[in-house]
Design a protein that fits this description.
The complex is a heterodimer of chains A (801) and B (102). In chain A, 71% of the residues lie in helices and 2% in strands. Chain A is an all-alpha fold. Chain A has a two-stranded antiparallel ribbon. In chain A, helix 4 packs across helix 21. The longest helix of chain B is centred in the N-terminal third of the chain and has 35 residues. The chains are: A mainly alpha (801), B mainly alpha (102).
């Protein structure tokens, strides 16, 4: 059988050769070639279904960075197979749809390369067992979706949407990386399966909760959970096939996959339960609530996606409660929630993919997605209407569509969870079914809006860009196949349940040996769930009919009080405020930078020395200071202080000369004739050079800096001097071993020179001398070029760089 | 004989010390002139004189340390003090040190 590693790599390989194929085959739409990839992979993955259903799993490793334990390990079990089939299956339909949707004038090369990149990355996310590799693919999905959202990069809103989604999802990605590193610290392994195996011993580790929170941040940002959902509606600027693929079926489910995959690691903890369930149910409500007011069909679908993702997320949260007490017959009942979540995950991909494609068809055929301009398309586009109705009613949870089954299961688990006596559920648990039910009512309302406002009512041809007519067959194939699944899953849900969902449950609840999964029944008697659904239909219809009377409540919320405003405000303020902060210290004045450097020196060096107690002086061993040395030092001190108060340049130069010559005398006193010679020559040359330079400088002016700056300069300079002196004295005191100078006393025998200094310079350590010669050469060349090379007239601004 | 030698050595050392003390006083006075000197020419001459004093110090030190290694220093100071004074003089006179070729 085909190795799963190969499944991940193939899309990347094809993405590389797409431009070459496109160049050769100019008459064929490149999408047809691309279509072979997801279709082939779907068939390859589908061939695993029988063995997965019988409980087998497949792992395969290709070594990547074995010394760090980072290996390209794939792991195929029920959970990843579901996602794999969704990605490749919906991927194939989307590619087929895009062939008809995108005209050949678009840059198809880019589109299909990005799409294949995304597909490969997404397959990598779900099949990776190594968390570092998982992270790599995770970021690749963020990047490729960024590229896809901004596919029409000449539009401002596309670029903004892409930027927003990248910022939010990458923030989550970094959180995930930190979480993974923490997991590695806790468990010492990078393999998800091994982490699941050893994590029960480490649940009281100090990093356990931070790792969990960061992982959830990643999952919530990627899956557009409250309050990180704001990027998803803006990502609707992407071409519709991208919206259908990324923002309904695949990428937004990466976060859900992450939660499902890590449920055995973190599940059973109260924080995990409440965060996943609570955020999920809140997202479900908030998305449904906002979807009703949208005027743009794609925005409406975006909010409905947010809502449905929240529903799936909350069910995974509820399912994790089963892990709290380990395996027992009592806790098995709560695993139903996870089963329902997986079921709805598949269902949502089918009907939401179809709905996006339907909206794309409407947009493509009449030129607008605004529901105020649409209406009466039912007779003109009957096939599209049928699919829209199937998708919408499935989403609303009405039989005979698969959404009905998963919504009933949602109510069942939400009612069950109230009876669980852990995690304070007795006080807050009843909120879950109530919020879920209200959200479902709103879901019903916006589903009616999709169908009735678009396809029924008056046909307003004057508002449309093009007169409506039915879409080509090729465009209808994608949503058609998905609609067939929507209906098919309703009638035969247990095929899906037995072959895919049950094996997936084994991955999430590895300790549970039996009783996982339930038989899905369309009819389960007159239970509370059924009455809830009936109430939804009745109340939803009522609300839809009276929509224009109560729509005013949306105006009650101030327009500016949204998370979008908060996001924009934060982004804007970040730029606004960081600019003055930077300007505050990057003043552009050399003086200020020198102050920083010297302050750093005083604070860090001085602080370290006094903190570690390195200041201990012992001058008893020192050679006594002779009178001549005192005199020379006195002269130097007077000269040095006088330079600061010099009235003209020449005075300063002459005083500087005094300093230099005095140093030469000190060298004489300390018996260093070579140094004295060099010092004298250099001092003279320097003085001459100073004189040369000063000829070109303006008159020496008294510095008219404010007194405060002068005082601070004085304080800093005194501080630097003090620190430096104390360091020198402390170093003198800290002699740890003998000097090596005794070795050089054999200069005559070793190097044949009586002058030790010259023997060292020219023989023992001639390498330094050579490089110093090079320094002088470079300085000479530098001076020469500075003087000789003048910028031409056209590049006048060279010096401003 | 040895007494005589010791005595001469003592005399020599005392002489050198007196000379050094005198030169030191001269140095300090010259430094005062450099700082106070009303015109730049005063300062230049003071620096020149200082150079000569330094030659003296170097010579005396070579006597005191009983070494001939410092003789180069004495000669070099002589040359350099001359060159330095010349440079300052030319700067004061013409404002430039190295003339451009015409």
């Amino acid at each position: 059988m085909l190795s799963v590693n190969l499944v991940i790599i193939i899309p990347f390989l094809i993405a590389i050769i797409i431009p070459f194929i496109n160049k050769k085959l100019t008459r064929v739409h490149i999408g047809w070639i691309v279509l072979l990839v997801p279709a082939g992979l779907f068939i390859a993955l589908a061939s695993y279904i029988p063995s997965i259903a019988s409980g087998q799993t497949f792992a395969h490793t290709i070594q990547w960075i074995p010394t760090f334990g980072v290996n390209f390990t794939t792991y195929l079990d029920g959970l990843s197979l579901i996602f794999g089939l969704l990605i490749t299956g919906v991927g194939a339909l989307v590619v087929h749809y895009s062939i008809y949707y995108l005209s050949s004038k678009e840059s198809l090369n880019n589109f299909y390369i990005y799409l294949l990149l995304f597909m490969g990355a997404m397959l990598g996310v779900i099949f990776s067992d190594n968390i570092m590799v998982l992270y790599v693919f995770w970021e690749l999905t963020s990047i490729s979706s960024f590229l896809l959202i901004a596919f029409w990069y000449h539009r401002k809103r596309s670029r903004e949407g892409a930027q927003k989604s990248l910022l939010i999802t990458v923030t989550g990605g970094f959180a995930m990386l930190i979480s993974f590193i923490m997991l590695y610290v806790i468990t010492g392994t990078l393999s998800v399966r091994e982490i699941i195996g050893v994590i029960p011993d480490h649940t009281d580790h100090v990093l356990f909760i931070p790792a969990m929170l960061l992982l959830l941040l990643a999952a919530f940002t990627k899956s557009a959970q409250f309050p990180f959902h704001i990027w998803l509606p803006d990502a609707m600027e992407a071409p519709t096939p991208v919206s259908a693929y990324l923002h309904s079926a695949t990428m937004v489910k990466a976060g859900i996959y992450l939660v499902a995959r890590f449920t055995p690691v973190f599940g059973g903890d109260a924080i995990w339960f409440w965060l996943v369930t609570g955020v999920g149910i809140l997202t479900m409500f908030w998305g449904a609530f906002n979807a009703v007011k949208q005027m743009d069909l794609k925005a409406l679908l975006a909010y409905s996606t947010i809502s449905q993702l929240g529903m799936i997320m909350s069910m995974f949260g509820m399912g994790s409660a089963a892990l709290h007490n380990g395996y027992s017959t009592d806790s098995v009942i709560y695993t139903q929630a996870t089963f329902a979540a997986l079921f709805h995950l598949v269902n949502h991909s089918t009907f939401k993919g179809a709905l996006f494609m339907v909206v794309g068809i409407v947009d493509h055929e009449v030129g607008t997605r605004d529901i105020r301009k649409l209406g009466g398309l039912v007779t003109l586009m009957p096939a599209t209407f049928t699919m829209a109705a199937i998708g919408s009613f499935s989403m609303a949870g009405i039989p005979p569509f698969n959404g009905f089954l998963s919504k009933e299961m949602f109510f069942t688990v939400a009612l069950n969870i109230m009876e669980l006596n852990i995690f304070n559920l007795e006080t807050w648990g009843s909120l879950i079914p109530i919020l879920g039910w209200v959200a479902s009512v709103l879901t019903f309302v916006y589903c009616l809006i999709i169908v009735f406002k678009t396809f029924l009512g008056p046909y307003q041809e004057e508002k449309l860009e093009r007169p409506a007519h039915e879409a080509p067959v090729g465009m209808l194939t994608g949503p058609g196949v998905l609609s067939l699944f929507v209906v098919g899953i309703f009638f035969f849900p247990n095929i899906l349940g037995d072959y895919l969902l049950r094996p997936a449950m084994n991955g999430i609840f590895p300790e549970f040996v039996e009783g996982l999964g339930v038989e899905i029944h369309a009819w389960h008697g007159f239970e509370l769930e059924l009455f809830m659904t009936i109430a939804i239909v009745v109340l939803g219809t009522l609300l839809f009919v009276t929509l224009r009377y109560w729509k005013g409540i949306y105006n009650l919320f101030p327009e500016t009080w949204t998370f979008n405003t908060l996001y924009n405000f934060a982004l804007h303020q970040l730029e606004e405020k960081s600019y003055p902060v930077t300007r505050f210290y990057m003043t552009g004045f050399l003086h200020d930078y020198l102050v920083y450097i010297y302050l750093f020196f005083v604070v860090v060096i001085g602080g370290t020395l006094s903190y570690t107690g390195a200041f201990s002086f012992d001058i008893s061993d020192n050679v006594p200071i002779s009178r001549y040395e005192w005199i020379i030092v006195m002269v130097m001190m007077v000269a040095a202080v006088s330079i600061l108060f010099a009235k003209s340049r020449l005075t300063a130069i002459i005083l500087n000369g005094v300093l230099g010559y005095s140093i030469a005398v000190l060298f004489v006193l300390f018996r260093a004739p070579d140094l004295a010679l060099t010092q004298l020559v250099i001092e003279t040359v320097t003085t001459v050079l100073f004189l040369v330079c000063y000829y070109f400088l303006p008159e020496w002016k008294k510095e008219d800096a404010p007194r405060r700056s002068k005082t601070s300069n004085a304080i800093i300079s005194i501080g630097v001097g003090t620190v430096f002196t104390t360091v020198a004295l402390a170093v003198q005191n800290g002699k740890l071993f003998e000097t090596i100078s005794g070795y050089f006393e054999n200069a005559y025998e070793l190097a044949g020179g009586e002058n030790i200094v010259n023997a060292i310079l020219g023989d023992f350590r001639a390498f330094d001398t050579m490089l110093e010669v090079v320094v002088l050469v470079i300085a000479g060349i530098g001076v020469y070029t500075l003087i000789k090379l003048k910028p031409g007239k056209e590049d006048k601004n060279v010096e401003d760089q | 004989m040895t007494d005589f030698l010791v005595l001469t050595e003592k005399i020599l050392e005392i002489t050198v010390l007196i000379c050094l003390a005198g030169i030191s006083i001269a140095l300090i006075l010259l430094l005062y002139r450099i700082i106070a000197g009303p015109t730049q020419a005063d300062r230049a001459i003071a620096l020149d004189a200082m150079g000569i004093d330094l030659m003296g110090i170097a010579g005396l030190m070579s006597i005191l340390l009983i070494t001939d290694k410092l003789n180069d220093v004495v000669l070099l100071i002589g040359i350099l003090a001359f060159l330095g004074t010349l440079a300052i003089a030319k700067y004061l006179e013409k404002g430039v040190i190295i003339d451009r070729d015409n």
